[in-house]
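User: Predict the complex.
Assistant: Input components as received:
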Amino acid sequence: MADEIVIKKFKVLNEYGIHARPAALLVKAAGKYSCDIFIEKDGNKVSCKSIMGLMTIEGYPGSTMQVTTSGADAHAAMAEIEELFVNKFYED
Amino acid sequence: MAITLQELLEEGAERLSLSVIAGEEHLNKKLPEIAMNRPGLALTGFFQYFANQRLQIFGLAEFTYLKSLPSPEKYQRLKELFEQQIPGIVITRNRKIPSEIIELAETFKVPVMRTPMVTMNFVNECTVLLEKLAAPRERIQGTTMEIMGIGVLLRGDPGIGKSETALSLIERGYSLVSDDVTEIRRTSRGRIVCWANEVTRYHMEIRGLGIIHVPSLFGVSSIRRQTELDVVIDLKQPSGNEDRTGVYPEFVELMGISIPCLTLPVRSGRDMANIVEVAALNQKLKELGHDAAKELDDRVIDRLTKGRGRHG
């Protein structure tokens, strides 16, 4: 199985940053894929499948997060995560 | 729900100790308005506003007033009262019933009942009973437990493990209200009360075991006659779409009343009883005004938006 690694950077565009609702959306999206998904910011790295992890990473509005997906469905997972960031987590 | 005096008489046999003095054959008439009225003012001849649709209660005040009237006038006043088509009369304190009332009751086909109770106590008891009898009721699918004073209704497809979860909760010391079929009624205070069908009450069906009698196995503390419903828990096969934060609570409508509702995914090896127990505790905490999920979210938002200056 070819393990693919995808790395992308996103800006947090919604008004309040990564609070409970966006965190829940990210976890729900990530939960659909078997690959590992991590979010990294200022040297802190948390699993994108953990609500508590995402709420502690301090995703301020306007800050930049690095997302890493690795595994068989890495591309598909990244596409779905990207959609959430780009669409401001469907807030505002 | 409309009720008859016959139902009141049967249901209140112990608590109201009513006996029928006259008009027994008219007990099956419906009570148009489920309430009571003291007809004192009407007896003085004032009928501009008279709650004639209600059960009329003759207490000490009415009797003392009637006594003060000369006989022909007394008859006349009572006749005017009966002409208002009252549904029934209750006489308290076991007073001797004036012959005029019995005579008029037969003529106007109005049941007359008597109780040894003091008026105030009778009115209090009867109000509670009337409300209970008149409350809208339904029968729904689900197992009801009481967990530390919190009424929990467990719902879910057959075989998902409602009864098994209830059994584990009983072993933890909580009480069973009803298994699989729950009777509910809406109180005037806007709460839902759950209880069990009288025939199957306190019995459970456990797959592989058959039917068990809960208080025989676990003692009387394992059962409860009824409980007020605080939270509905739906047990479901995992869909991957479950709520992960609890910040945006969901509700279900039962008899027009909104009740908090949680959906718990059932996976093998997951201790459902433990999770239901925590769900009940969390609900209790929310009712005390402490919503953990919302408070954490507010704190995170507060930190994030204050950090905007430094980062954004």
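The longest strand of chain B covers residues 226-236.
Let me know if you want any component modeled separately.
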